[in-house]
Specification:
Layout: H1 5-41, H2 45-72, H3 80-83, H4 87-95, H5 99-115, H6 122-141, H7 144-155, H8 159-180, H9 192-219, H10 223-241, H11 250-264, H12 276-303, H13 312-336, H14 369-379
GO cellular component, one term: plasma membrane
Keywords: Cell membrane, Membrane, Transmembrane, Transmembrane helix
Organism: Maylandia zebra
């Protein structure tokens, strides 16, 4: 068992966060299956085919990232469980879309071992693995599935799917923020109230974005694809100009920038240092986009009135107002609760050629160089 009661409580808390991540992940899969079955029963075969295509594309994207990270780490396995499959078997797991499930199972086993005191080193290993899993889940949540799977069912009046997915994303972002704060000094770690504000502003902004896209898709479903492609091209160019440096080879970095464009279509996150001005420009762009989408929906509703919505202008104004409210909550969070630190004040260090990795050194959660890069961007002063 860990050496002190505080360490045991910390480990238990991490285990609970892991269980929440796993439950949200499985719930999301269950809701996606339910949405696919509903579309099939409604004989909406075009939407059903698109849904399957986007789900498969999202899964493949996550597996590619997982495989690339194994390759970047020279396939150095951290535990005996991870060493069980050979490199060829590990590749097959990713080909059959099972690589991330192996990681989820492995992470849970490591934390379970810590709680029952059989391996003290498993705690650090579990935290290290959880960092990568949360990045992968982040990509999965905001990839193709996060945009189209949310808007298409809502356009077909599947409100339950939209509400469940919105809560799932906001909850996951909160656990993601908790994970990044592993790299902060103890005195900089936040209290529960900051978690609440972080959850609220993400929930409000995401809800407004989903509502605007869904309203537009409900009256002009064919144009939602054109809107996505045009917006993604703008956001991809924006990501390229941000000079990201997340992956370890040029092709991987272009893949990452492509993914960033998909994520930004839905929600903002920092991908490089000095992103504050870009963040303001991004939110201004999304706010204008929401106004245009809601305006087109109002115009369509006025030319073809519906009994379901009697005051379209009021509805559209509420969607825009909700986004503005979310921006207000975000400003409050960044003003009073968000730590702004220099790179050298974060815990952990990226392994460099001048500082070679010691094979015998115990693995730490802060050794995860991918999450550290994201934490540097998230907590950067500039």
């Amino acid at each position: 068992m860990p050496g002190s009661e505080d360490e045991f409580k910390c480990c238990t808390q991490d285990f609970l966060f892991t269980c929440v991540d796993l439950l949200l992940f499985l719930l999301d899969i269950g809701v996606d299956i339910w949405a696919a079955v509903s579309l099939y029963k409604q004989e909406a075969y075009v939407y059903f085919s698109l849904l399957l295509l986007f789900l498969l594309g999202s899964s493949m994207l996550v597996q590619v990232y997982s495989w690339l990270w194994y390759r970047y780490d020279d396939f150095k396995m951290k535990t005996k469980i991870e060493k069980k499959p050979s490199q060829c078997q590990l590749k097959l797991l990713h080909v059959f879309q099972l690589g991330i499930f192996f990681g989820l199972f492995h992470d849970d086993i490591c934390v379970f071992i810590v709680l029952y005191g059989k391996d003290a080193d498993a705690e650090s290993v579990a935290k290290f693995l959880r960092q990568d899993l949360r990045i992968l889940h982040f990509i999965e949540m905001f990839s193709v599935k996060s945009t189209f799977v949310l808007t298409l069912p809502l356009a077909l009046s599947s409100v339950l799917k939209a509400i469940g997915s919105t809560l799932s994303i906001a909850s996951f972002l909160t656990t993601y923020d908790h994970s990044m704060r592993t790299f902060l000094p103890e005195k900089e770690k936040h209290h529960m109230i900051s978690l609440v504000f972080y959850f609220i502003w993400n929930l409000v902004l995401i809800s407004s974005r989903i509502a605007a896209l869904a309203l537009f898709a409900s009256v002009l479903p064919c144009f939602i694809f054109a809107h996505f492609i045009c917006s993604w091209l703008v956001l991809f160019f924006f990501a390229w100009r941000s000079k990201t440096n997340f992956m370890e080879d040029p092709r991987g970095e272009w893949l990452y920038r492509t993914t960033v464009g998909l994520i930004w279509y839905f929600n903002w996150f920092s991908v490089a240092k000095g992103m504050r001005i870009r963040s303001v420009l991004y939110h201004a762009y999304i706010l204008i986009d929401i106004c245009i989408l809601c305006g087109l929906w109002c115009w369509k509703m006025s030319t073809d009135p519906s009994d379901f919505v009697t005051h379209p202008l009021t509805t559209a104004a509420c969607v825009v107002a909700v986004y503005v409210l979310g921006l207000l909550f975000k400003v409050i969070y960044y003003t009073f609760f968000h730590p702004n630190l220099d790179k050298d004040k974060l815990k952990g260090a990226t392994i460099t050629e001048e500082q070679p990795e010691e094979e015998e050194r115990p693995l730490k959660a802060t050794d995860n160089k991918r999450m550290r890069k994201l934490a540097e961007n998230f907590f950067s002063r500039t």
